[in-house]
Amino acid sequence: MWPFVAIAASVLPSILGLIRGNKVKENPTLALIEERFRREREESNQRIQEIQNEAKQARGYIEQLQKEKQEQADKAKRARLEAERIQQLQNEANQAHIQQLQQEKQEQVDIASSARLEAEKAAKIVDELRDQANQKDEEMKNIRAAREEMEAKWKKGICPVEWPTQEQYERFKQQYYKEGKFHLAIAGISGTGKSSLINAFRGIWDGDEKAAQTDVVESTSVVTAYPDPNPSNPFIWFDVPGSGTLSCSDWTYFNNQGLFIFDAIIVLFNDRFTATDAAILKNAERYNIPTYIVRSKSDIHVENIVKKTRRKPGARGDPAKVLDDARKEFIMKTRDSVRKNLMKNDPPLRSQRMYAVSRDTLTLMIQEEPLGDNLLLNEYELWQDILQDAFSRRSEKSYGSMAELMKKAGSGILGLFA
After folding, report:
1. Closest by CA position to 265, among listed 284, 246, 286, 279
2. Given phi > 0 = left and psi -120 to 50 = alpha, else beta, which region is 110?
3. Per-residue pLDDT tens digits for 371-399
4. CB half-sphere exposure, 366, CA atoms < 13 A
5. N vs C: which end of the chain shows fewer Cβ within 10 Å?
6. How many degrees, rounded to 5, is the angle at CA 219 between CA 383 and CA 344?
7. CB–CB of 224/246 below 8 Å?
8. 330 pLDDT band (50/70/90 cuts)?
9. Which portions of this protein are annotated as coiled-coil regions (predicted)?
């Protein structure tokens, strides 16, 4: 066993012990989504309250103007009655006083006319304010309608770009999420070896009781959960089917599958990345969810390289060296393929490591059994990175515990946690 792997193998039980012994805290991605929903509701309620206050003030102003209008109308009525009285006096008065009475009448007519004009002006203002109040009421109705439409969209799954709807969030949280557990997903199209890898991470062999079924062609897009058979391990593994192609935007696929629920996602691939692989890597980074690019069945590919080498004319050499050279060649070519696949996306995806694994080696490693003659690839590094990320992301711990672990493991372990 290589020194690097020996160090990793010695520290893995300690990291797993830390995870088992620490309480699992709240998922930071889910907390961010819930805070976003809370802010949207507060802003909507605040705007509705502001419009209601404005409408209330407008109605008060209308009532005041209506009161003034009534006062002007009363004033006009009194003026009219006074004019009628003067008319009666004019008819009864002496001819000598006709000119004087006519003058007084004209003055009263002018007063009545002025009062009428003021009343008409007040009525016009009242109508304008009533229109403004109606406009405010209409605006308030529109806001209510917009809010109801937004809530309806949440219920129908029509979501804003990059964020899940509240209905999606609640549904997937209820469907997948378990308090005190780490939720680890393995995604990939049929034929990538997902079921075997899920069984390996759970420390059981294909065909064992409670094992995920293998050699079954996928015909559904339903995510399937597989609890860890060891009750001391706080892990739930999920099989996420991949379609290869997308009929919607990448963020819609990510949210519709509920992938924002998971604490980590392993992306299995064959010779190239599919559209769903790229969607997962891109949006998991947006949600700050760790991802791991894994090439399963790697021992089979290495063995094919060994057979090809031995078939060459005059092939000689130590079998162990031939196997080691084949292992290095496969890992180098596969990592180069991953790099090119990441660069093909527009924009290019973030460069990250590829892990080549063997199902049998990984199963024995999880069982803490001797590996025997099984080919060792990147199984220890993959499991160590998953455990370390899980511990750092959600375990309620002191950083002193990790520092003490690193100190005990020796200076060589420092490079593993860099």
Report:
1. 284
2. alpha
3. 888 899 999 999 999 998 888 887 765 44
4. 26
5. C
6. 55
7. no
8. very high
9. 34-153
